[in-house]
UniProtKB/TrEMBL annotation:
<keyword id="KW-0001">2Fe-2S</keyword>
<dbReference type="Pfam" id="PF01799">
    <property type="entry name" value="Fer2_2"/>
</dbReference>
<dbReference type="InterPro" id="IPR036010">
    <property type="entry name" value="2Fe-2S_ferredoxin-like_sf"/>
</dbReference>
<dbReference type="InterPro" id="IPR036884">
    <property type="entry name" value="2Fe-2S-bd_dom_sf"/>
</dbReference>
<dbReference type="InterPro" id="IPR001041">
    <property type="entry name" value="2Fe-2S_ferredoxin-type"/>
</dbReference>
<keyword id="KW-0560">Oxidoreductase</keyword>
<keyword id="KW-0408">Iron</keyword>
<dbReference type="InterPro" id="IPR012675">
    <property type="entry name" value="Beta-grasp_dom_sf"/>
</dbReference>
<feature type="domain" description="2Fe-2S ferredoxin-type">
    <location>
        <begin position="1"/>
        <end position="78"/>
    </location>
</feature>
<dbReference type="GO" id="GO:0016491">
    <property type="term" value="F:oxidoreductase activity"/>
</dbReference>
<dbReference type="GO" id="GO:0046872">
    <property type="term" value="F:metal ion binding"/>
</dbReference>
<dbReference type="InterPro" id="IPR006058">
    <property type="entry name" value="2Fe2S_fd_BS"/>
</dbReference>
<dbReference type="Pfam" id="PF00111">
    <property type="entry name" value="Fer2"/>
</dbReference>
<keyword id="KW-0479">Metal-binding</keyword>
<protein>
    <submittedName>
        <fullName>(2Fe-2S)-binding protein</fullName>
    </submittedName>
</protein>
<dbReference type="GO" id="GO:0051537">
    <property type="term" value="F:2 iron, 2 sulfur cluster binding"/>
</dbReference>
<keyword id="KW-0411">Iron-sulfur</keyword>
């Protein structure tokens, strides 16, 4: 089947998509967007988190056919050209990236949190990111990164 979908503001088309294919597969293998990671393919780890119509979803659990004529925004789409989004930059600056496998999903989840709650308490950050697993960092640096991003976003308001 053919899937037309808007990805990061651009109209994109994927052909010969298999009925059972996931949005994650389409993004990575057909549309050349490897930012969203495939760690579990079962909706357990959050590494594949993308926005679908501005709501974060696990792209591995969304069938490609479900995204027809909808809007997807991936971690690549958060940056403004070469300029990283404050959330992306804060993950780098706070040392919240080790192997990096969890990072794209965490960045999208943290971005969504800060859009909804610009100055979240620690408990709100932990709750918002509870579906995103990281094997490397122990989560403290991730917490630091989200708080740094919140401060930076506040400074530009
Ligand atoms: S790869 Fe989608 S939740 Fe783990
Ligand atoms: S940095 Fe390695 S899984 Fe999070």
């Amino acid at each position: 089947m053919r899937v037309n979908v808007t990805v990061n503001g651009e109209r994109r088309q994927a052909d010969d998509v298999w009925e059972g294919e996931s949005l994650l597969y389409v993004l990575r293998e057909r549309l050349g967007l490897p930012g969203s990671k495939n760690a579990c393919e079962q909706g357990e780890c959050g590494s594949c988190t993308v926005y679908l119509d501005e709501v974060p979803v696990c792209a591995c659990l969304v069938a490609a056919g479900q995204v027809r004529d909808r809007e997807v925004r991936t971690v690549e789409g958060l940056a403004d050209g070469d300029r990283l989004d404050p959330v992306q930059q804060s993950f780098v600056d706070a040392g919240a990236v080790q192997c990096g496998f969890c990072t794209p999903g965490l960045v999208v989840a943290a971005h969504d949190l800060l859009e909804r709650v610009p100055e979240p308490a620690d408990a709100e950050i932990r709750e918002a990111l509870a579906g995103n697993l990281c094997r490397c960092t122990g989560y403290e640096k991730i917490l630091d990164a989200v708080k740094l991003a919140a401060d930076r976003r506040a400074a530009t308001r």
